[in-house]
Amino acid sequence: ITEVNNALVKGYGFHEASQFVGKRWADFIPFEENKEFYLKFVRNNYNIRGQESIERDGKGNTRYAENSLVGNIVNGKLVSSFGTGRSVTERRRMEAEKKELERRAQFASRLATVGEMASGIAHEVNNPLTGVIGFAQLLTQKKDIPEDIREYTKIIHDGAQRVAGIVDRLLAFARQHKPKRSYTSINDIIQTTLKLRAYEMETGNIKLTTRLAPGLPGTMADAAQFQQVFLNIIINAEAEMKLAHGKGSLLIKTEV
């Protein structure tokens, strides 16, 4: 680099042109990240316009630029080049934020659909489940059945009650309601939310560790909204761990 203007000096985080002069462009536009940029420059007879590059500023931070570059050819060889560039880092940042917002909106939409499905499934399960619990309870109260049958019936009853608890939590999660603040235990909400994900974490090879502070003060909040937030965080964490490693460890901790 033999000559730069003040705008470029400032754009790369330097204070004066002398910090630039004498360095190579590859120091700021690494070849490994910009192979297409350099190849296009050569293929187009050392002339490119509006070509984006991934760069490093004076502090090593990533920046993005849109460049126009013209080569000076002498006897068929490139001896120098002259170009202009403008930073598009802010534009790229805004595009990335937009994509992230769109991703979150799509996730929220899918979650709403899952909630509607969960509500329908829960109601369908609840009807026969009520009969199972009721008749199992009646059988356990009979005095003229063998003791082993009574024990089996009790196991059926207890298992059905656990399923009923899962159904109730699904309904609470799926139910649409206006925000209602009440004195709420954060630890209780976390434990209830984790029960909803227990099966998925077990089958997904996610090791769960909880360190919930005993005696954690309650707070005025909408329990359903808190549960939604915790559920989103847990599902996102599971997805990222599975994507990166196929398994993972999740630590959930509360403290004062």
UniProtKB/TrEMBL annotation:
SUPFAM superfamilies, per the entry: ATPase domain of HSP90 chaperone/DNA topoisomerase II/histidine kinase, Homodimeric domain of signal transducing histidine kinase, PYP-like sensor domain (PAS domain)
Protein name: Histidine kinase domain-containing protein
Domain Histidine kinase, residue spans: 120-256
Keywords linked to the UniProt accession: ATP-binding, Kinase, Nucleotide-binding, Transferase, Two-component regulatory system
GO molecular function, one term: phosphorelay sensor kinase activity
Listed Gene3D superfamilies: 1.10.287.130, Histidine kinase-like ATPase, C-terminal domain, PAS domain
Species annotation: marine sediment metagenome
InterPro entries, alphabetized: HATPase_C_sf, His_kinase_dom, HisK_dim/P_dom, HisK_dim/P_sf, PAS-like_dom_sf
